[in-house]
Amino acid sequence: MLYSISDKNVQEIKISPGIMLLIFDKASGHVPLKILSIEDGTVLKTFNHLLHRNKKVDFIEQFNEKLLVKQENENLQILDVRNYELREVSKAEFMTPSAFIFLYENQLFLTFRNRTVAVWNFRGELVTSFEDHLLWHPDCNTNNIYITSDQDLIISYCRADSDDLSSEGNAGSINVSNILTGKCLAKIRATTSSPTDECSCSGRCGGKSCNSKKRIQASGIRSTVAEALEDITALFYDEERNEIYTGNRHGLVHVWSN
C-alpha cells in the first residue's frame, strides 16, 4: 500500500492522469476541494469553490487543470485551478448531461444527454454535434459506446432510424462516427431487402453479413442479423483485428468482422 486517505467529510473523488480531486461535503456557500498527487498522496492544492447557497450541485468534474462545476438551473462554470480563471457557459447552451467522456489526447470532452452526443472544448464552445448518432439508450449506457485509442472515432449502439423512437423491440444499428466532424462513416444495420452481397454499413463490417435475411451460426445457435442487433447490452471494438464485438441480453456474443 502506498498511502491511505481517511476523512469522513470526503464526499467524492475524481481521477485524472497523475492527480486526484477530493470533493468534500458542501459547506455554507462553497465546496472545499483538494487536488492530490496520485503517486504519493501529496496535497498539491487546497481551495474552496463558491456556490449558490440554495442550489443543488448537478456535478463537479475534473480534467487535468480544469474544473467543471454545474448547479441546478445555473450556468456551467469552467475553472482553471492554476490561475483561477473562470469561464461560464449559458445554462441555455449547456444543459446537465447524464454522462461525460474526457478525450485527453484532443483536450475535448463528450457529453451525453437524451440519446444525443456532443463534443465541447474547455473554452465552453460546442465543437461537434453528430449528424446520425442517436443512441439506443436514453440514459447513456456507456457499455454500448467505444472510443478508439486515437480518440477520432466513436462506435455506438444506436437507433437504426434516427426518427424512430418507438418500440424497444426493434433492431438497432452500430454507428461509426468521426468525433471531430460529426460525420457518420459507417453503419451496421439489418435491412429488409432480399439477400444480396450488398452491405448497408459502407463495407466496414465485412460486406456479406449485414442483411436481415441472412443468418449467423455459432456454437449451434442461429441468429439473423436483425436478431443480433436487438437488445445489445455491451459493445467493444478490437482495433488490431478490426472487429466489433456485441453482447445481448440473451447472453450471446456476436462478432462483426472483415
Automatic annotation (TrEMBL):
Q: Which Pfam families does the record cross-reference, listed alphabetically? A: DUF7899
Query: Where does the source fall among the domains of life?
Result: Eukaryota
Put simply, this protein is called FKBP12-associated protein
Organism this protein belongs to = Actinidia chinensis var. chinensis (Chinese soft-hair kiwi)
